[in-house]
Amino acid sequence: MHQYTGKLAVLYQGAEHKQQSQDLAERLSVPFYENVDKECPESFFLCWREGCLKLLDNELLKKGGLAVDIEPRNGEQRSWPAPKQDALAHALGRKTKTVVDATTGWGQDSLHIFRMGYELTCIERSPVMVELLADGFNRLAQLDWMQNLQLQSPKLIKGNAIDLMATLDSPPDCIYLDPMFPPKRKKSALAKKSMVVLRDLLGDDQDKEELFEAAVKATGKKVVVKSPDYAEPLGGKPSESYHGKLLRYDVYLKN
Ligand SMILES: C[S@@+](CC[C@H](N)C(=O)[O-])C[C@H]1O[C@@H](n2cnc3c(N)ncnc32)[C@H](O)[C@@H]1O
After folding, report:
1. Ligand 1 pocket member 125 (CB < 6 A)
2. In the chain, where are the structural domains located?
3. What are phi and psi of 156, to 5 degrees?
């Protein structure tokens, strides 16, 4: 059975993007609907709204939806490159120039890394997230500041990073990992809606250890793992750890 059977459909609601919506449904091998009724078994929908490709669950169906957010984070300086001053920047390190984000997801860490001026390649294995990211990266490329600085959006590679990291042209200075960890409690009031939907759609990443081992092999200098503060370090005792709000960046230096 296909991974999205009965779970996901493409919804077309407006005057624009009809052909793109049909092509998207075909690429993902999921149904194409022009409206949703109680008979529809799916609980997730991809839909163009307000010029962005959005992921909806039943709660977001009436209004809203989740798109890749290309705006700088709260408190992030709107200059390029943004200052490298937070826990993530410290974990990546001052000497790091090239970064591979092997678990791109909603692209929020990737886009922050990109805006701080690192040379970034993104890998994502979920075909749905790849579609959302491609739409976000297209919108990013059209922003005035990107065009004025003649910058290109990060390269996005679709597939399993466990295999793909071994095929990179040259080892990056740093491989960044943020796999999905099981939640501490069933329903965490603190979890962002985008992460709740991602977990509901994709589930936890069961092969994190294998991903870590592959990253250690493929990196030039270090692997950085983001994890919730309650989780055990993914690769055993890290060389260094940097603490953010309810999370940790564990740094593993390559021997
Ligand atoms: C917790 S999310 C990452 C969130 C991301 N850091 C952000 O800021 O939006 C984990 C993502 O990693 C992806 N992922 C997990 N293991 C992977 C693998 N082996 N290869 C490629 N992508 C993977 C999942 O599909 C999911 O989209």
Report:
1. yes
2. 8-57, 87-253
3. -115, 120
Q: Tokens standing for 150?
A: 């003649």
Give residues with Cβ within 8 angstroms of 136, minimum separation 6: 52, 67, 68, 69, 70, 107, 111
d(CA 168, CA 70): 26
Residue 226 near residue 103, CB atoms below 8 Å: no
Name the token pair of 221. 């200098």
Among 66, 42, 35, 62, CA closest to 52: 66
Per DSSP (E only), the strands in the chain are 8-11, 32-33, 44-49, 52-57, 98-101, 119-124, 155-158, 174-177, 222-228, 240-244, 247-253
Task: Specify the CATH architecture of the domain 87-253.
Answer: 3-Layer(aba) Sandwich (3.40)
For ligand 1, say whether the CB of 105 is within 6 Å of any of its atoms. yes
pLDDT tens figures, 9-19? 999 988 789 99
- Cα separation, 126 vs 159, whole angstroms: 7
Alpha helices in the chain (DSSP H): 18-28, 87-92, 108-115, 127-141, 144-148, 161-164, 193-202, 208-218
- Does this model's pTM top 0.85? yes
- The preferred substitution site among 180, 188, 212 for testing ligand 1, maximizing ligand atoms within 8 Å of CB, is 180
The pLDDT assigned to 184 comes to: 81
CB 201: neighbour CB atoms within 10 A? 18
> What residue's CA is closest to ligand 1, atom 5?
105
Structure confidence at residue 79 (pLDDT) = 86
Residue 2, classified by CB atoms within 10 Å of its CB into exposed (0-12), middle (13-18) or buried (19+), is exposed
160 CB near ligand 1 (under 6 Å): yes
